[in-house]
């Protein structure tokens, strides 16, 4: 699937165009979402851009882009309420899907049904860049809560109880 086909698939929901200009607006009409559009947060030193995030109700999907630095690992976890589609734009890595480990490269696509243990790692020397789509929407709010607004902002501290409550709120569980 090329970028144009991927974008067309993302923009077509139930036969109608469903996008938004800013991540915090509820989708109302077709729109182009620019590369620099959306809410930017940092997880560690890596940027996450929330591209689609319907507010007020859980819409059909939410979308982020994420850059993962060389050597960075995404811990193995599962989503209780969302399916996830990940499209690798650039870089090299590997992903855990259930009990299987698969190689990642530009053009790879992962489908992660809710309840599936998964995680990833950048095994390359450059950025691993991907698009992640969550359906239904809502999980993108997790990145707002754990992310920083500026790369220079100090990391947020949370007690184990606060982290556990946040994880429950977003239906994410980490493999222990």
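Sequence proposed for the structure above (176 residues):
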């Amino acid at each position: 699937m090329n970028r144009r086909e991927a974008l067309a698939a993302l923009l077509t929901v139930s036969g109608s165009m469903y996008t938004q200009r800013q991540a915090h607006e509820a989708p109302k009409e077709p729109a182009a979402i620019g590369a620099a559009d959306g809410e930017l947060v940092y997880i560690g030193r890596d940027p996450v851009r929330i591209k689609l995030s319907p507010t007020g109700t859980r819409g059909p999907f939410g979308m982020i882009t994420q850059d993962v630095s060389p050597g960075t690992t995404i811990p193995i976890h599962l989503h209780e309420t969302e399916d996830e589609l990940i499209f690798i734009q650039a870089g090299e890595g590997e992903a855990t899907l259930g009990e299987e480990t698969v190689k990642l490269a530009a053009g790879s696509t992962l489908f992660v049904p809710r309840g599936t243990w998964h995680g990833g790692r950048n095994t390359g020397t450059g950025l691993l860049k991907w698009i992640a789509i969550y359906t239904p929407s809502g999980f993108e709010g997790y990145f707002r809560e754990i992310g920083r607004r500026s790369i220079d902002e100090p990391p947020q501290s949370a007690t184990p109880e606060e982290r556990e409550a946040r994880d429950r709120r977003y239906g994410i569980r980490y493999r222990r």
